[in-house]
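User:
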Amino acid sequence: MTTYQVQVTRDGKFWLIHVPAVERWTQARKLGEIHEMAQDLIEIMTGDPGESIELDITISLPEEVQERLDRAAELRSQASRAQGQAAEEFSSAARTLHDQGMSMREIGEVLGISYQRAHQLVSQNSKAA
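Assistant: Predicted structure:
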């Protein structure tokens, strides 16, 4: 099995497909055609049967789009961290209420959660401490 690098870019209505190993280009009208077109090109240029060809396809996006995707990934990461911190604070609030003598039912009612969830939060916070 031979793996071929395939570099793909959008140009107008078409996807341009470059296979550096055979130093050739082809094109596809739709994204779903890229694999087939690249494999056909490699088969023609090398004589290798299709079943012995593996493709590593990299799609290059316009710089503006890539920047937006990178920013979106960073924001998702920040949101995930913030969500974890919020959960820790919520658990700490439940533990503080418990330490002040509130029952699990009262904690649940005050925080808008079930008493079972209040118990989980208080127990979880106790284990972490």
